[in-house]
Amino acid sequence: MSIIEMKAITKDYHFGETVVPALRGVDLSIDKGEFIAIWGPSGSGKTTLLNLIGAIDEPSSGQLFFEGQEVVKLSDNKQTELRSRHIGFVFQGFNLIPVLSALENVMLPLQINGTLHFKAKEKALARIKEVGLSNIANHIPAKMSGGQQQRVAIARALVTDPSLVIADEPTANLDTETSHKIIRLMRALNEKEKITFVFSTHDHRLLKQVKRLVQLEDGMVKEDGGKR
Amino acid sequence: MIQWMRIALRNILKNRRRSIVTLISISLGFAAVSLFQGYTDNVYEGLRISAIRGEGLGHLIIYKKGWLEKGKTKPDQYMFSQEEIEKAIELTQKDDHVILSTPQIHVSGLVSNGRTSTIFLAKGVVAHDDKVIKGDMAEFWPVKGNVLNQKHHYGVEMAEGLAKYLGMKPGSDGVVMATTLDGQMNALDIQVEGVYDTGAEATNDKYMRFLLPFAQSLYDTEKADQLVVLLDDWKETQQIRTRLLSMLSAAGLNCEIKTWNELSLFYRQVKNLFDMIFLFIYIIVLIIVVMSVANTMGTAILERTREIGTLRALGMKRRSVNLLFSLEGAMLGFLGSILGIILNTAAWSIIRAIKPTYIPPGVSTPVTLIVNLVPHFMFSLMVSLIFLSLLAAILPARLAARQNVVEALGHV
Questions:
Q1: Among A83, A95, A156, beta carbon nearest to B306
Q2: Which SS3 state, helix, strand or coil, does residue A140 take?
Q3: Which residues contact B12 (CB under 8 A, 6 or more apart)?
Q4: Residue A61, SS3 per DSSP
Q5: Whole-number percent of chain B with pLDDT over 90
Q6: pLDDT score at B342
Q7: Confidence (pTM)
Q8: ipTM, 2 decimals?
Q9: Kind and range of the H or E run holding B231
Q10: Residue B9's closest chain A neighbor by CA?
Q11: Which long-range contacts (CB under 8 A, 24 or more apart) does A62-65 make?
């Protein structure tokens, strides 16, 4: 069953009177439990596509469905609730809240959706353990390495038990060895918990670990590797 | 809510330098307003006691209806007769809050030492009642010599300036002259019992105090022009005025009653002046607080645009982003106020220890600067500064909440 259904999606950016097309008619279907990499050169539209899938941006035209719901027709509050309950985000720059510890960062999405403190703490600790960071749960981001920060970000993305995790170039700021570890971690979680992972990268070395590759070029799907 | 407060507090602590500058602005403003309020509170208290006890206005003064308007031209017609005085005293003393009610008469004329004459204004009082009205104030404005004594019918208390002008001192003899209510000239011998400082330059060269029967005999009357009522609690003044008025009216006494603050022109003038200065300082402080908090929050929001984008992506609704930043503003107001209370208390302690003195306008002797601690005012000031800080943060917070998530995430 599709978790994401995109039909003839376009996205234009307006800079004054100049219109820059970022996506030009993308059709894409993503099933539950898939592990997909969106790849392509810089400017190919990877981030734009992920923003649309993550319901933090809206297409200029076309239809986008999340579990059968047309995202554009939802109010801002409903879209926010959708993200809060069903989508996890991993950012290229980690985007941890600097004043919060690793544990508090992981608890944050649960607190946003109103989970009780003790329950949020319990779940966050379990996720932190899962990504192997129990020993630094009380460290603030400034005291962690890039790889550790990204693992905290992954724990944060997973803590609400989302059906979809979006990771925009999650390894771009990491060294090769850490990048492989992060992708392996994501893959393991995908296989263990059947969470759908969609991530973008332009690092060819990581693509071997991915089940399905979608290649973007000039805002269009050049090649969809389908399910492996 | 607690976790959002924790985030707000940590962000305040994180940007230490900026937060400290804002907190200093708020706390200095708080302390300035609060100290001034403490000073005026003490001045108002002093002026109130001075008016009620020192000036001898009591809390309420009862006049016969029409006295205030026409009493100067037809005094005989608008004075209380002996019978009316007794009736009014009996009625007013039925109220539990009334300590005493006493008749008085104002007289004026010429006073002479045999060689020099000058005008005088005097009040005829019941010696014992006058002592009760003065209470502890008698110690602040002591009479040099003897006080009025019911046994010394011709004994008078004379203001220092007047005594100096006439070269009189306790024990000196003189003469007072005035026109009786019937229009006849009358002159009576006096003996200065004591000399006192009225506390104001304008009255120190004119005032005298007589015994009531002596003042009445100078005007050749048994009447009195007012009844001074002393209460046990000044806060009850308005309610008791209403109560007494209806009680006297029901008994057929057509009266009008003035309160001490209505009659004390000096109190009202000083209060109006201080209230105006206070308002001016208060508005300046409020503007400083609003500008500081708005500036701090505006900068914080600009710096934390990516954080806002992240929070929105993680599922935080706009109103929660708004709440988060507004809380931060309110917390600045709260912490600034706490710091302000500490500053205010420190300044208050220093002033109490040093006891600086100053000479206020119209007063002839130095006065110790006293600043009161007014907890209820500090609490309401704190609430208003927190509320204002919250308001000052709301606009930048709304702008933060309205940001496009993708643009916010891409902010560098």
A1: A95
A2: coil
A3: B19, B328, B331, B332, B335
A4: strand
A5: 55
A6: 96
A7: 0.76
A8: 0.90
A9: strand B226-231
A10: A99
A11: A62/A6, A62/A7, A62/A8, A62/A9, A62/A10, A62/A25, A62/A26, A63/A5, A63/A6, A63/A7, A63/A8, A63/A9, A64/A4, A64/A5, A64/A6, A64/A7, A64/A9, A65/A2, A65/A4, A65/A5, A65/A6
Structure tokens at B70: 């026409």
Taking the CA of residue B304 and the nearest CA in chain A, the distance in Å comes to: 10
Q: Who contacts A117 (Cβ-Cβ below 8 Å, separation ≥6)?
A: A107, A111, B2, B3
In Å, the largest CA–CA distance within chain A is 53
3-state secondary structure B208-224: EEEEHHHHHHHCCCCCE
- Residue contact B7–A84, C-beta within 8 A: no
d(C-alpha A103, C-alpha B112), whole Å: 94
Q: Chain B residue with minimal CA distance to A120? A: B3
Please give the average pLDDT of every successive group of 10 residues along chain A, which has 228 residues: 88 87 90 89 88 90 90 90 91 88 93 90 90 89 89 89 88 78 82 88 78 89 71
pLDDT attached to residue B300: 86
Determine whether the interchain pair A57/B405 forms a contact, defined as Cβ–Cβ distance below 8 Å.
yes
Both structure tokens of B360: 């206020």
Cα(A175)–Cα(A203) distance, integer angstroms: 11
- For B305, the closest chain A residue by CA position comes to A95
Of A99, A104, A108, the CB nearest to B314: A108
Q: Which of residues 14-43 of B touch A (CB under 8 A)?
A: 14
Read off the tokens for B250. 């029901």
